[in-house]
Amino acid sequence: xxxxxxxxxADDIQNMSVNPENSxxxxxxEALYRSINRRNFVHPDPLEFLYRYESLRDRxxxxxxxxxxxxxxxxxxxxxxxxxxxxxxxxxxxxxEKADTGTLDHRFRGFKHRFAGGxxxxxxxxxxxxxxxxxxxxxxxxxxxxxxxxxxVAPALDGFCRELxxxxxxxxxxxxxxxxSACKRINLFLxxxxxxxxxxxxxxxxxxxxxxxxPLDVHMHRIALHLGLTQRxxxxxxxALEVTAGFARYAPADPVRYDFALTRLGIRDDLSxxxxxx
Length: 278
Description:
Pfam families: DUF2400. It comes from Desulfococcus multivorans DSM 2059. Residues 1-21 are annotated as: Disordered. By secondary structure, this protein is mainly alpha-helical. It has two domains: 10-43 and 191-276, no CATH class; 52-182. 50% of the residues lie in helices and 1% in strands. The protein has helices at residues 10-15, 24-36, 56-68, 74-88, 92-98, 101-107, 118-135, 138-143, 154-164, 184-194, 218-227, 237-248, 259-267; strands at residues 112-113, 116-117. The protein has a two-stranded antiparallel sheet with strand order 1-2. β1 (112-113) and β2 form a beta hairpin. 42% of the residues are buried.
């Protein structure tokens, strides 16, 4: 395997928020970040759809759609997200402004992504439409529930997700934080929208990266167990918060800093955790 292990870019140095604590794991995580957290390692990932949209009003809609469908085989995810965005055209925000329930029901009839059908997509998008119409943007809707004094975005997730469900039943596309879900996909969406580096496009001001939660799924849970960041056996919100706290020991201002690079190790055949001595 050949990866770039050269000096960090100037903007990477400027944004670095790593704890000066000298530890072997910290050194290895930083080496992984510098090598893998790059645009050329993104494919295959639903995140790549966000790069197509310069307007934040479009990008946040694309982000919520892409993150909501981010489960199952990655090829199926990319295919499903691509189908939805092809229907929504060059500006998903403009499409959604003009669409009503009947339009969405017709345009997504027959859509299928594992357990999700066209009705789930319709109700998700109607929830998004209602939030934007009421608050001006998804960011503004989230900020209604966010309190900067909270240790993480966890308390804000419940209100935001409930609003997404207000216009129907998007099913499992929207998590239920009150039931202890790790909320992997909504936390993935927040990582994309809040952080700004070579991979995450950002755009949502007012939410510090320090408040983000690691998007915990089975793969990341396995990595966290391997790194000794948790001993919990379930992929719950409690586990996600514990894993986030573990990463915060090394990057307190940006605990999800290593999420993208670590998850590449289970997605790409040309990368292995042993390549970085982890």
